[in-house]
Amino acid sequence: MSIKSNALKQYLNIMIVIILSLLIGGILNGLHIMLPWMFGPIIASIICIKIFKLDLSKWPNWLSNLGLIILGLEIGTTFTKRVLKDIQNDLILIVLVSLLIILSVFIIAIGFKRIGKVNFETAILSVVPGGISQMLMMAEENKRADILVVGLTQTSRMLFVVVLVPLLSFFFKEPSGEASSQPDIKPLTEVINLPQLIIIGIGIAITYYIMKKIKFPTRYLLAPIVVMMVWNLITDINFTVDNWLMALAQIFYMVRIGKQISELLNQLHGRIAIAIAFQNITLILVSVVLVFIINIFSEHGINQLFLSAAPGGMTQIVIIAIATHADVAMISSYHIFRIFFILFIIAPLIHLFVKKE
C-alpha cells in the first residue's frame, strides 16, 4: 500500500510540475518574454521544490531523453546539403574558435585555482567546458582532484548559461534575425508519414546503440542529428519539428535542468561559489571578446558567432539559437566539433597531465 501511495504521489508531482510549466510558459509566451518554454519549466521546477516542497527526485529520465531526441531531430533537420557545404567552407573558423576557447580555459583555470584555493588538477577539470562525464571520470581516477568541486563547478555552468547567454544573445540579435534555417519548410506532422517516421526511429535507435557501445557522450541528442543529416543527404524530404512538439520537448528536458539548478542553489557558497562565478562569467566574457575580433574577418553575424563560441551545453545553446532565429546547423557544428575535440584530444591530454602530476 505504501509503495502504491508513493508511486501515486510521485505521479501527481510530475503532473503538477508539467501543468505549472505549461501555465508559466504560456504566460511568458503571451507576454513575449524570451525563451518562454525554456524558462517556464525552470521556474516551475524551482517553485515546486522550494515553495510547494514537492519531491521531483523521481522525474522520469525517459521524458528528458525524449525531449532531447525531439530537439536533436530539429537540429538535424537544419543540416541540409546546402548548409553542409557552407560548413565545409567554415571548417578553419570552427577549428580556430574551438582552439581559442580551450586555450582561454587553461588561463582561467589559474584564476580559479587561486580564488577557490584548490589544486591545479581540480581547477583544470572544473573549467573545461563540455564533456562533463569525462571530467568527472578523470577526477574520480585522480586522487588529487576534488570530485565534489569538479562536479559542482561543471554542473553549475548551466545556471550561468541559461541566465547570461540568452540575455547577451538577444542583445546581439539583429533586428531582422540572422540566417534562419530554410524558409517555407512544412512541419513534421504535415510531411512525414508513419512508415517514414518508423524508418527515422529505427535509424535513431541503431545510431544510439552504436554510440552507447563506444561510450560516446550526448548520444540522445547526437543520434537523431546524425540520422537527420543522412536523411537530408539521401532524400529531398525536408521538414521542421512542429512548434507544439518543440515546446513539449523543452518542458520535458528543462524540468530536469530546473531540478538540478534548485539543488545547486543550496550548495553554492563561500570561496568555491566565488570561484565558480568567476570562471563562468569570465568564460562567457572571453567568448564575447573573441567573437568581436573574429567578426572583423568573418561574414557571420555577432549572435551566430557568440552562440557558436559560448560555453555551455549544446542543448541549451541550440534552444537559444532557435529562439533568436540564428543558423542552428552552423552553431551546432561548432559545438559538435568541440565535443569531438574535447573527447578525443583535450580529455586524453588532461588525463596524461593529471596522471603524471
List keywords for this structure.
16 helices, mainly alpha, 357 residues, 2 domains, 0% strand
Uncertain parts: 177-182
Number of domains: 2
Calculate the terminal CA-CA distance, rounded to whole Å.
55 Å
| Structural Rg | 20 Å
Number of strands: 0
Which overall shape is indicated by the principal axes computed on the Cα atoms? globular
* Biggest sheet overview: none
Q: What's the order of the H and E elements?
A: HHHHHHHHHHHHHHHH
Q: pLDDT average, as an integer?
A: 85
Structure in words:
The protein has helices at 2-30, 36-51, 61-77, 81-89, 91-116, 120-127, 132-141, 147-172, 188-191, 194-213, 219-234, 243-265, 270-297, 302-309, 314-323, 328-356. Helices cover 78% and strands 0% of the residues. It is an all-alpha fold. Residues 177-182 have low confidence and may be disordered. The protein folds into 2 domains: 1-58; 67-174 and 187-355, no CATH class.
Please summarize what this structure is.
With 357 residues, the protein is an all-alpha fold. The chain has helices at 2-30, 36-51, 61-77, 81-89, 91-116, 120-127, 132-141, 147-172, 188-191, 194-213, 219-234, 243-265, 270-297, 302-309, 314-323, 328-356. The protein folds into 2 domains: 1-58; 67-174 and 187-355, no CATH class.
Give the topology, please:
Blueprint: H1 2-30, H2 36-51, H3 61-77, H4 81-89, H5 91-116, H6 120-127, H7 132-141, H8 147-172, H9 188-191, H10 194-213, H11 219-234, H12 243-265, H13 270-297, H14 302-309, H15 314-323, H16 328-356
GO biological process, one term: regulation of gene expression
Protein name: Ammonia monooxygenase
Keywords: Membrane, Transmembrane, Transmembrane helix
